[in-house]
Amino acid sequence: MLLEKLTTFELPLKGMPCGTQQFEYHLGMDFFREMESTDVLSAAVDATVEVKRSGDIYELCITVAGELGIPCDRCLEQMSHRVDAEYRVSVKYGEEYSDDADNVIVIAESSNTMNVAGLIFDTIMLTIPIKHVHPEGGCDAAMQAQLDAHRATIAEEDAEGWSDGEGESDNVNDDNFPCDPRWEALRKLKDNN
Fold first, then answer.
1. 4 three-state secondary structure
2. Distance separating alpha carbons of residues 86 and 63, to the nearest angstrom
3. Dihedrals φ, ψ of 3, to 5°?
4. Which helix (H) or strand (E) holds 22?
5. Mean pLDDT, consecutive 10-residue segments, the chain of 193 residues?
6. Beta strand pairing status for 10-11 and 114-115?
7. 3-class DSSP assignment, residue 21
8. Which of 70, 92, 112, 177 has the highest count of CB atoms within 10 angstroms of its CB?
């Protein structure tokens, strides 16, 4: 249902002549809202879909470039993320839709068009790293102060009971850092077996 709304992303594959055709899109927040993305706060991305038809095979080359505003994992403020990626996939007709093979999509023979909105969206979203944070010093100062205030240090952990309180701790790992007593208990169980 969602992709049906994005009719401008329908490529008329069956009616396409042999050779190369190019389709260009400018993607703003409307596109990402339509794709129900909550990770994108602002967007200005240009996408180009180049389709090269050779007989019954359609080679698609999707190129995306632009800027996204995404939340920083550390301070939750918006940060800028540069998008620059390319994805290539072959499309051919078959009995029913299948995307099981790497870089090959089979669409049903009854389909005259193919909606590429999902492919464009995935190409963009895969550029976002798992951990996205502002460069050092770029986070919101108030949030950084709160994070620093709640950050525990090894000295504080020792004072709060990580050591046994009688000089050197028995719960020290190879790097001379205190170990959580629960891990020490598990290690003792392992050593006894």
1. helix
2. 4
3. -70, -20
4. strand 19-27
5. 57 86 93 90 94 91 95 87 94 85 86 90 92 79 72 55 48 59 79 75
6. antiparallel
7. strand
8. 70
CA distance 19 to 55: 9
Q: Is the distance from CB of 25 to CB of 43 less than 8 angstroms?
A: no
- In which element (H, E) is residue 65 found? strand 57-71
CA distance 142 to 14: 57
pLDDT at 63: 96
At residue 193, the pLDDT reads 66
Tell me, what's the pLDDT at 7?
A: 54
Q: Which helix (H) or strand (E) holds 47?
A: strand 42-54
For 150, the token pair is 């709640």
Q: Which amino acid is at 42?
A: S
DSSP for 121-189 reads: HHHHHTTS-SS--PPTT-S-HHHHHHHHHH---HHHHIIIIIS-SSSS-S-B-TTSPBPPHHHHHHHHH
The reply to whether the predicted model has a pTM over 0.85 is no
- Cα 80 to Cα 69: distance, rounded to the nearest angstrom: 5
